[in-house]
Write a structure and sequence with these properties.
With about 375 residues, this protein is mostly helical. The protein contains 15 helices and three strands. The longest helix is centred in the N-terminal third of the chain and has 25 residues. It starts with a helix and ends in an 11-residue tail after the last strand.
Length: about 375
C-alpha cells in the first residue's frame, strides 16, 4: 500500500462518513431534539437543553459534518464533531443507533490523523483498522442472525416484497435462503480479509446491501429510511477499502496496536460484540442488525389510565378490556424515525414516564422481553 494510495483512501472514507452521517441525522431529526413527545433517556442525570436551545448542538453537528466533507484538512472539525456527538449521545440513549456508533468511532480514529499524509505507518494502520471494522460488521451481523427469530419472523418479513408476487406459500420455496443469508454475511466478513477471495466478497456485500435497500425502499416495505444512507455508505466503504486495493494484513493490525485510539476502536467495535451473545454487551453496539433477536419492552395500561394519556400517546395504546398495549419500539419508530435502544434500562426509564399518569401503579404493567442468549431456545 503506497503512501499516496492510503492517504487518498482516508480522505475518501472521511467524506463518505460525513455525508452519510449528515443524511441519516437529517432523516431522523427529531431524535436529536428535546422538543418531542418520546422521552429522552440520558445516560447520567444530565440537564437537557430545552427548546429552542436544543437546536444548537444538532445544528453545530450538521455544520461540522458538511465542513468535514468539503475541507481538505478537517482534523479539528472532526474533533469538534466527536465532542458534540458524545454530548448528544450522553443526553439520550436512543441516539446510540448502530450507524451513529460506527461513524463516531471512525471519526474518533481520524481525530488523531493530521491529513498531511506524512506518516505512512499511521496511514496504513488506520486503513487496516477500517478494513477490520467493515469486515466485523458483516461477521457479527451474520452470526447474530443464526437464531430462531430470524428464521421464523424477520426473514419472511424481509422477503415479503418478493413473495407477495408469488403464489401462496411462496416463502416456503425460499426458506433455504433463511439459512444461507446469515452464512453469506459471515462468509463475506471473513473473505474480505482473505486476499484471494476479496473481490467475490466485495460483489457479495454489494448484492446484500442492494437487496436490503430494495426491501426497505418504497418499492418494498418503505421502512426505516434512516439506514438507507448507511447501506450506500457500506457499499462505498467496501469498494474504497477492498476493491483493487492492497490485501488485508494482520501484520498491519499489529502495527495498529501501536496507536491507543486504534486499540480502543478495535476493542469496542471488533472484540466486544462477542459478549452480546451472553447479554453482557449492548445489542446496538454489537452489529445486531435485523436479526429479530433484540430485547423489547411493552407497557400495558388499564382503560382508566388510557383515558388519562396525552393525545399523542393514545394511538399507541392498542387493545381493550384493560389490556391496552404500548410497544415502546413502535412508539419510538413512529415518533423519532428510529427503533428504541433495545436495552432494559432504556425501556424501564420510558415505562416510568407512563406510570406518571396514574396514582395506582397496579393500573400499569411493564413487561420486559430479553433477547435470547447464545444457544438458548425460544421459550415460546
Amino acid at each position: 500500500m503506497t503512501k499516496e494510495n492510503s492517504c487518498a483512501q482516508i480522505r475518501i472514507i472521511t467524506r463518505i462518513t460525513a455525508i452519510a452521517c449528515f443524511a441519516s441525522m437529517l432523516l431522523c431529526y427529531k431524535l436529536w431534539l428535546s422538543d418531542r413527545n418520546f422521552p429522552a433517556v440520558p445516560l447520567f442525570h444530565l440537564p437537557l437543553l430545552h427548546h429552542p436551545l436544543d437546536y444548537i448542538l444538532p445544528c453545530i453537528a450538521g455544520i461540522l459534518l458538511l465542513c468535514i466533507a468539503i475541507v481538505r484538512n478537517p482534523q479539528k472539525l472532526i474533533l469538534g464533531f466527536v465532542v458534540v456527538a458524545l454530548l448528544l449521545a450522553l443526553t439520550d440513549m436512543n441516539r446510540w443507533q448502530p450507524w451513529f456508533y460506527q461513524y463516531v468511532l471512525m471519526f474518533f480514529i481520524l481525530c488523531f490523523f493530521n491529513y498531511r499524509c506524512d506518516d505512512t505507518r499511521q496511514q496504513q494502520a488506520i486503513v487496516s483498522t477500517f478494513k477490520l471494522m467493515v469486515a466485523a460488521v458483516y461477521f457479527w451481523s451474520g452470526l447474530q442472525k443464526l437464531n430462531p427469530h430470524f428464521l421464523a419472523d424477520t426473514f419472511p418479513w424481509l422477503m415479503e416484497p418478493i413473495t407477495n408476487h408469488m403464489a401462496a406459500g411462496g416463502i416456503h420455496k425460499l426458506s433455504f435462503l433463511g439459512y444461507m443469508f446469515p452464512l453469506l454475511e459471515i462468509g463475506t466478513g471473513i473473505c474480505l480479509l482473505i486476499p484471494a477471495l476479496q473481490k467475490p466478497a466485495v460483489a457479495a456485500s454489494t448484492i446484500m446491501h442492494l437487496f436490503i435497500l430494495y426491501v426497505l425502499s418504497p418499492m418494498g416495505h418503505n421502512y426505516n429510511p434512516v439506514v438507507w444512507p448507511w447501506n450506500f455508505a457500506m457499499i462505498a466503504f467496501v469498494f474504497v477499502l477492498f476493491y483493487n486495493e492492497s490485501p488485508f494484513s494482520f501484520s498491519a493490525i499489529r502495527n495498529a496496536f501501536s496507536y491507543h485510539s486504534l486499540k480502543v476502536v478495535i476493542l469496542l467495535f471488533v472484540m466486544m460484540p462477542l459478549f452480546n451473545f451472553f447479554n453482557l454487551w449492548d445489542s446496538y453496539l454489537s452489529h445486531n442488525l435485523y436479526s429479530g433477536n433484540t430485547s423489547n419492552g411493552l407497557v400495558y395500561v388499564s382503560d382508566s389510565v388510557e383515558k388519562q394519556l396525552p393525545d399523542y400517546l393514545k394511538p399507541y395504546a392498542i387493545g381493550e378490556l384493560n389490556q391496552n398495549q404500548i410497544t415502546i419500539k413502535y412508539w419510538c419508530m413512529k415518533e423519532l424515525g428510529v427503533p428504541a435502544y433495545p436495552e432494559k434500562r432504556n425501556f424501564v426509564a420510558i415505562a416510568r414516564t407512563i406510570y406518571a399518569y396514574t396514582n395506582d401503579p397496579k393500573q400499569v404493567y411493564f413487561m420486559y422481553i430479553p433477547k435470547l442468549k447464545f444457544n438458548e431456545k425460544d421459550p415460546d
